[in-house]
Structure prediction request, 450 residues.
Amino acid sequence: MSIEHACRRDIPDATVNRLPVYLRVLGESASKGQSTISSETLAAASGVSSAKLRKDLSALGSYGVRGVGYDIATLSKHITEALGLGHTWSVAIVGMGNLGTALATYGGIGVKGFDIKWLIDDNPQVVGRLIGGQSVVHFDALKPSKDERVIGIIAVPAAAAQQVADRFIKVGVRSILNFAPAVLVVPDEVQVRGVDMATELQILAFRGLGAREPHETSEMKELMA
Amino acid sequence: MSIEHACRRDIPDATVNRLPVYLRVLGESASKGQSTISSETLAAASGVSSAKLRKDLSALGSYGVRGVGYDIATLSKHITEALGLGHTWSVAIVGMGNLGTALATYGGIGVKGFDIKWLIDDNPQVVGRLIGGQSVVHFDALKPSKDERVIGIIAVPAAAAQQVADRFIKVGVRSILNFAPAVLVVPDEVQVRGVDMATELQILAFRGLGAREPHETSEMKELMA
DNA sequence: GTCTGTGAAGGTATTCACAGCC
DNA sequence: GGCTGTGAATACCTTCACAGAC
Prediction:
């Protein structure tokens, strides 16, 4: 007897990174009243090739119909499941500066599978303030229950990031999204993802070099000889 | 006669994505008064393996000394050059909500190679406001000179993102950093990087599934039979 | 005929392990 | 002895191209 549908664990990393995009596009298509979508269309709207998209989706199982395409509702459900959004995740945002406030009021979350449960700041002048209808609390108020799944978001300056990470870990947070420009040192079982604008800008700067570099021309000629 | 140092263009993608982190760590080490650093130390502080780090750096050329390590100043200079930060890039941020404001006042930029030159919002009530000592202008004020290198940052709601991208492209912006949860359609020569919190949370949710899933246990047993 | 699912091929990235230089 | 630079081996990801289901 063979295994019916692929276990979550064997979905390739690269695929996992793209599933959220597909899910978002599927949601948009659904809200336009569509009920099925072809790999070609979904791929184009997601900015990937159709072959890649089909490979990605086939890692979850065979949920398409040949000659027709994918049923949007069914596919959304399976991607949601595969991503672990069947359960709700509680989210704690630390640092209620402009960035933390932006994240707290970002419509994109809360929508599905994420519950922004704690807005945290240690500044007594900020504690108690209302942001997006929710009041800011002190870090000590972060007491997740034993079986609660929590994602901690760090939106404080780089100098304080490690300290916040340590406190997260102490109360049992095992998934951290770090917006501070700092590399966090954490135990193996803790997952960290970092997002940093300076890094992104530098990567773009490199890619943007394609356009001619006037002062490099002489060297270029040499290479072409 | 062989080519002296590697041309920027043949640096692997994965390496480019990590160079900014190395650069940041080098800066921190330098400000602590260190002058050289070993691959082992730099790798640990950057969260990568030392073999990977050495491979990455060797793509830029041989700037290390065997038995000693890397000279921090020299290495920083070469990474900076390789990333195209020899020139300054002008940055335009569109959307002065909380996120745009956070980005505009983020210390990490402006520091090196990036000049936040335009803070843009089309809302007449926002135009003229001062943010981080700089006044907000209307999009029409974005008129980069012909040879100016510009990175455009989109910090508006998803519904307006494509429109902003189109306007960027019309005035000659070829590198875009998109914080809105939307896939942008752009010509081939335009580089786009997208950062979206919902996507990051979903990826973390998947990775965080490692911890036991009580309600999946029966299925697990079946698989092990 | 249309469109998915997937082996096979090709390309890219990571790890290993050690030669070479200080 | 210590540490870098790099071929060789491995693992991973993408693309191709077509068989198979509708």
In short: Chain B touches chain A through 69 residues (CB under 8 Å). Residues 20 and 79 of chain B are 8 Å apart (CA to CA).
